[in-house]
Structures are given as structure tokens and as C-alpha cells.
Amino acid sequence: MKALPAVVVGGMVYLLTLVIDPYGEDGPWQLVLAVLCGGITLIVQILIFFLNELHAVQESVDRRFADLGTASKLFNEVEKLRGDGVPRLAESATRVVSMGPEILHAFMHAEIDRLARQIEDLADLSAESAGENHDWLVTLTRCASTSIDAISTTVVDIGFWSTEPAGRYLDAQRDAILERGVSVRRLFIVKQPEEFAALLPICEEQRELGIQVKVVALEDLPLHLRRGSVFDCIVFDHALSYEVRTDGLNMSTSTAVNSRAAEVQSLVRRFNQLWDANEHGAWLA
Question: Residue 117: which domain range?
Fold first, then answer.
């Protein structure tokens, strides 16, 4: 195929020379010129092909070097996480893709994408999850090193303490207290003092685990402490908040974690004000 244009060009040159000098007496110069032009055409084609191949090789080499640079950078970043689960995640993912049905592969990729989106959100110091994320709650409790301060409203929280996630949460708090010396304080907020009785068994159980528990009625608080919204939240190590958001039916709609200093410190101040307000109102302590 590459020789075909050279043959065509040579043939056209030969025919053209015959037209120009049909009775040439200097020998078969028409044939020599035709071969020469065809040869030049073939050489030009070969050079163009070679340059295109060289350009393709250069692009491939550039991509490889770019990939190596990205891989090297990624490796250096992963090296910082050698004690975490990142290397195990990569190794396990490569094993999964080599075994099992397609739906298992699809599920694995979906989970990795979900985790990646969550980590990307955490890079902005906050993340959100649909519903009430009990896994986050237990994991954060296991990560706490100094303090856990929680505000629990009975409207949302009263039924939670008889569930299986509550058992895991309390076990994690007990371990945090006994093994790491974490201070755990829980403040229950009710609307009226008449609701205190329903919380007695819950408070007694948590105190036996080493949790400091207080209950306050909103109507007994000073006016300046009743202002503003009251919602379920937990502050871990005075540095990260776990907030449960509800709808108009008081159903949990989402969970947010936030480590933006200004917002977290606002919750810390709010909790301390409510915790220290027992001298102003009626408490179950």
C-alpha cells in the first residue's frame, strides 16, 4: 500500500515526459526520472510514517512517565498510611476482582466509590450520611482519647437505648472509660420535669458503666439557655461533632460529622453552659 502512491507518481511522471518529449534522443531519461520521482515519493512516505510513529512513541513515553509520577506520588502518600487500612484495602480489592461473580465486583467498586466520596468530604472537615449512622457513632467512640460530651433529647433518643446499636455504643464507651481514661458526660434534655421518671433506668445503667449523666427540663432552664435550637449531638475530644438531624416528624434524616473548629467550639460552649446550669434549675443528677 505504501508503494502504490510511488508507482502512481512514477507512472504519471513517465507519461508526462512522453508527452513533453515523445522522441527524446538522450536515452531512456523518462524512465529514470519516473523511477526517481517514485523513489522520492516512497522515501517521503516512509519519513512521514516514521515521524508519526516517533510522535506516538513520544506520547506513550510521556504518558508512562506521567503515570509513574502519579504512581510515585500516590505511593508516597500511601506510605504515610502504612499503619492504616489503605494498603490492606488495595490488596483486598485486587483479590476481589480476580474472583467471584460480576455482581461482587460491582458491589466492591460501589463501596470503594462511596468510601472515596466520604474521604473527599472529610478533606473539607465535614461529611454527611443518610439516616442515623451508628457505625460512625461507635467508631468515633473507639477513636476518642480524652472526652465524649453528648446531648440527648428524649424526643429522638428515648427509644434508642433499648436497641442493639445502643448496646454496642455503650460497650464502646465503657471501654473508652476503662482502657483510655476518657471522660464521658451525657446530658438528657426533656420538656418537663414529669418526664424524669422514664429516664431513671437508662441513667442508672449508664452510671454503672462510669458515664456521668444529668437530666434537665427545658422549662427549668434560665431563659438565655432556652434560646436557640436543641438537637442531638456529641462532641468527641472537643474537636469533632456528631450531629443527628431530624424532620418535622422527629425522625432521623441524616448524620453529619464536623471538625471545623469554630462550629465545634460553639457546641462545646453550649454543652458546658447546659451542664453547669444545675444550680439554676431542677435536675436529676
Answer: 92-122
In a domain, 262, yes or no: yes
One pLDDT digit (tens) per residue for the chain, 285 residues: 666 666 666 566 656 665 666 555 555 655 656 666 666 776 777 777 777 887 787 787 777 767 656 656 555 555 555 556 677 777 788 888 788 788 988 988 898 888 888 888 888 899 988 888 899 999 999 999 999 999 988 654 667 888 899 999 999 999 999 999 999 999 998 888 888 888 889 999 999 999 999 988 888 888 777 776 667 899 999 999 999 887 766 677 889 999 999 999 999 999 998 888 754 334 455
Task: Say yes or no: 177 and 262 in one domain.
Answer: yes
Q: What nine digits make up the cell of 184?
A: 464521658
Q: Quick check: 187 and 168 in contact, CB under 8 A?
A: no
Q: How many CB atoms lie within 10 A of CB 44?
A: 13
Characterize the bridge pairing of strands 212-217 and 283-284.
antiparallel
pTM over 0.85: no
Domain match, 227 and 149 both: yes
